[in-house]
Amino acid sequence: MNSDPAKRIFDIQQFGEFGGVNPSITDSSTYTFLEGETMEETFLGHMEGCFLYSRHWNPSNKFLADALAAMEGTESAWITSSGMAAITCSILQLCKSGDHIITSVTTYGGTYAFLKNWLPKYNIEVSFVDITDLEQVKNALRPNTKIIYTEMVTNPLLQVSDIPGLAKIAHDHQAKIMVDNTFTPMIFSPAELGADFVVYSMTKFINGKNDCVAGAICGSNEFISQLSNVNDGTAMLLGPVLDPLRSSSILKNLHTLHLRIKQHSKNALFIAQKLEEMDVSIKYTGLPSHPQHELHTQLMNKQYGYGGMLAIDLETEKRANEVMFKMQQANIGYLAVSLGYFRTLFSCSGHSTSSEIPAEVQKEMGLSDGLVRFSVGLDNDIEEIFNRIKSCL
């Protein structure tokens, strides 16, 4: 791939109201109109550049949305107050009672719970498949299938989704494909690979500071207009708006994302290679031993590496807890959920971020009771960090 998301962000010029090099923060929930007709036209969605009410659009969120759309290569984007808001609003905008969704059984626990437990209450059916098996995906298609939903790199088993292959299956069936790219911003450009919509938890790598919760939806002008429609737009009516101050902060952090992703990838690859040499059971897409290593290499924007996420299998929860305790005591990082932070974070997935998935399903999908997911940090001396990890193992 020749895509360079960082260059697309760099090419945007966004000035503050008084010529500031940072866009101004709009500390206002509502906006004035000089004429009543203009207000009415804005309500109807016909006035480009006019702001009505901050739950609908506000300048700070629009600046961030434009930068994210540039990064993803989509026409537009919408900012939400969490990653789950991005996922749920997108799906609910596309699906109605009686529709069907195909998704990966390996997915973030909150997403799994929404798809498995919440959507059936509204007569929306969901089929869970091995997303790496395209024949299984095809066999799950129904006449009422509206979406194939997947994570670009799945949480926590780090499977790589074949977006071009999945997109062909979806589009041949007049369905849409939606991709959660939270683990791998800039590393992959799913919209360029065929995805119709890309969603993010910006809480993670995009913001990179673990100081706020936020999400994003990237897609066509038509879809974003539908989401924000005052009459039936899911995002507008459910109201998961992000505070402008947080939006402004994320926008500034977005401009360092390319540097951070490269360092996350460099550090994770170093640790993964060293652990593999020790015969530790490890999952990392940058290792030739990973089942989808070649696919990842084929689809990625190569200058950004293989990402900061890896997982090791310590077989039992007891062993995982012992090692994680030692690692925190050794100041390797923190025993905490979430990811994309400048310090290394680690957690036992089956008993934390994937705990919504029933134990029997975890076993079927290959999620070990002792799987520890690492979000590798930005440490300058990664060899020293590895030596500490080695001592804990």
Automatic annotation (TrEMBL):
The modification N6-(pyridoxal phosphate)lysine is found at K204. GO terms for biological process: transsulfuration. Keywords: Lyase, Pyridoxal phosphate. InterPro entries: Cys/Met-Metab_PyrdxlP-dep_enz, PyrdxlP-dep_Trfase, PyrdxlP-dep_Trfase_major, PyrdxlP-dep_Trfase_small. GO terms for molecular function: carbon-sulfur lyase activity; pyridoxal phosphate binding. SUPFAM superfamilies: PLP-dependent transferases (SSF53383). The keyword Cell membrane does not apply. The keyword rRNA processing does not apply. Its cofactor is pyridoxal 5'-phosphate. GO terms for cellular component: cytoplasm. Belongs to the trans-sulfuration enzymes family. This is Cystathionine beta-lyase.
